[in-house]
Amino acid sequence: MGARAGALLLALLLARGALGKPGELRAPLPGWGRAGGTGVAGSRWGPCGHRDIHPLVVGGVETVRGRWPWQVSLRFEKSHRCGGSLLSRRWVLSAAHCFRTNYDPSKWSAQLGELTSKPSVWSVRAHANQHRVRDIIVNSRYKEVLFNDIALLELATSVTYTKYIQPICVLSSTFMFQHRPDCWVTGWGSLRENETSLPPPYNLREGQVTILNNTRCNDLLEHPADHSTIQNSMFCAGVKNGSIDACRGDSGGPLVCDKDGLWYLVGVVSWGRGCGRPDQPGVYTNVSQYFTWIQMMMSCTTPRPDPSGLLLLLTLLWSP
C-alpha cells in the first residue's frame, strides 16, 4: 500500500508540474489589421527551412501543395481566420491581433499540409493533420496600434513531419534580406481590398515582394492612420504598383526568404493601409526582434503528458 501510495503521489506531482504556468496572455484590444522546428536555426529543435516542392510560378497566384510546408491555417470554430508558421512539432507563430477578441485556445485549431483553406470534411488526411491549440501566448508588449504584433500557439499534440509539413527557420538577425526583391508572402486572404474572403477553391496564394528599409517605409506611409512611425519591430514589403500585397485573412502568415538553400521566417503579416494600393507596402512584424522571446517561451513551457495516458497510469496504480 505504501509503495502504491508513493507512486500515486509521484504521478500526481508530475501531472501538476506538467501544467506549467499560465501563458502571458493579454486580451487583445480593438484595433485594425489583416485578420479576416522551432525550426530556430542551429537550435535544439532540429532541422528547418527545407522543402521538396520547388518554385514554379512568380506573382500573386495560386501555389501548389507542399511548396510552403510551414504554412498553417489557424481556424476559429472550424473556419479559417488567420495564417501561421510552423516552428516545431508543437509551436506555431502568428500575429497577436488575430486573437484580440477570440483568445480561448479551446476554440482554435491549426490545419497543416493542405492547399485549400476549406478541405473536405471527409478528408482523412486533413483530419489527421489538424491539431487542437493548447495555449495562446500573446506578447506582453502587444499594443492596440499593433506594436509587438506577435503570438505563439502551443499545439495540444505533436505534428508529424512529411513532404508537405515542415518547420521554418528563424534567425536572430535578418538585415541581409533588406532590399531583397525575391522574398515571398503566402496566405488564404482576400484578393481585393473590398472583398471579405478568398473565392473557391480557396487555394493558398503566393506573391513575390521586396523588403524595404524603414526610412523608405516611413516616407511612403507618411502619417499612417491610427499608427505611429514604423519602428525596428516592424518592416515594410511590397511592390511599387501594389499588384502584390497581403490582405484580410492573411494576418499572421509568413513572409519568407531563402539563403544558401534554407528558408527563413523574416516577417509576420500585420497591417496595411488598404490592400494592393500603389506605394503603400504592407507592414510586417520583424520576427528577428523576437528571437529571444520565441526561444524563451518555447523553452519554458514544460511538456504535458496526454491526459488519457495519465488516467491510464492512475488506473494501473490503483488496480489490484
TrEMBL record:
* SMART domains in alphabetical order: Tryp_SPc
Gene Ontology biological process: proteolysis
According to the UniProt entry, where is the signal peptide?
A: 1-20
Reading the lineage from the top rank, the first entry is Eukaryota
The GO molecular function terms of this record are: serine-type endopeptidase activity
Q: SUPFAM superfamilies from the xrefs?
A: Trypsin-like serine proteases
Matching CDD domains: Tryp_SPc
Q: Which residues form the Peptidase S1 domain?
A: 57-299
Q: Which UniProt keywords apply?
A: Disulfide bond, Hydrolase, Protease, Serine protease, Signal
User: What PANTHER family does this protein map onto?
Assistant: ACROSIN-RELATED, SUPPRESSOR OF TUMORIGENICITY 14 PROTEIN HOMOLOG-RELATED
Q: What is this protein called?
A: Peptidase S1 domain-containing protein
